[in-house]
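== Fold encoding ==
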Amino acid sequence: MVSTRIHRLDGDLYLLRLDDDETEFFEAMWSIPEGITYNAYLLVSSNGAVLLDTWRNKYRELFVEEVKRIVDLRDLKYLVVHHMEPDHSGALAEVVKANPDITVIGHPLANQIIKSFYGVSHKFVVASDGAELELSGYRFIPWVHWPETIVSYLVDKKIVFSCDAFGAYSRPSKVYYDELDASKREEYKWYMKKYLANIVGHYMEWVSKALDKLERLGLDIELITPSHGVLWKNPGEVLRLYRGWSKGLSSGKVVIVYSSMYGFVEEAVKEVAKALDKEGISYSIHGFTSRGYAKLSDVVGDLLDASALVVATATYEAGVFPYMRFVVELI
């Protein structure tokens, strides 16, 4: 059963978070028994309120009810859309219908997608790259992340709203990374690495470019607020992690992925493991056998900082074992 929480980050900024334990496969692809959160943010001022993103479309009605606990939807002046994927924009149509006067702000492509996804009529303002926007007494600097995602910087509070960047799987018990116990921090880093590999891995080159851009801007950052997972009061740590992962810095570990129909390939994999043990090389093994399948999310996450990949596969009707072919294509 999902749960929600509203956390007051400071006097007029709220985190609206939903903890999702119902989604077994994120994007219908990635196994996440650890679950995931959806984070939206709400700025309240005497000049009107600014809503930053929403939740997954499945929970749109619940999202509206949570917003109503803080402000009347008719008092919302702006809705900033950092990303149009339905886990972030899912309640957009409900918000616009409840408040037709609200102004939606986002990437130029977002306006077309809003019409296509939700068929609503709305006011729209383009978030130009690097342009400063005055929103209800606050100054925002949005910039293009990649199509059609943006990141924004709240000048007055020195906060980066990073959307999927720096996000993670899991339903952490705390709001801030610094509040997690040491053991939980290491576990959380794995969920973050896996999320990055699964969701953004195909565009890793652009992650590096986005980090370069962030450095060039020279922003004074005191808080990073992703759309999934915990918030970062120490931006330096998460930026270092992302920089290493985006560059493919090696952990020295070997990842072994194999399929075995009747155990013969599995015996060969055991010999590989013995050889690695003899050389003192760390490794992980992911198997696809008659006893069960490894999680694709774990396989891809494990490979992000691996130094080598070993693939071992059974044959099937004079070809590669079909599921293994899919796994290799996915990698």
Observations:
- The radius of gyration is 22 Å.
- Residues 146 and 206 are 8 Å apart (CA to CA).
